[in-house]
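Protocol step 4 of 6: structure prediction from sequence.
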Amino acid sequence: MFEEYQIVRRPIVTEKSSIMKDEGNQIVFEVDPRANKSEIKKAVEKLFKVTVLSVRTQNRPGKPKRLGRTTGRRKDWKKAIVRIKEGQRVEFFEGV
């Protein structure tokens, strides 16, 4: 359906995701909201050359924001928590 670079949009680098990476061998990504778990798994395996054990997804609603009297919302997005095989690393995160 999509190419790998369209499915995996960006990594989520927060304090919590760094702890998950170190302790649970899990990586957090923002992904396309239309992608399913199997597509996310294939994309991460192909992009980063790792073995994916499981994928968990969350649909995150956009936060309401205001600017003066004008109200609006940030866009809704999808988060994927990907667990990779023990001993494997994603080179993208090694310097973070």
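Step 5 (inspection) to follow. The chain has a mean pLDDT of 92.
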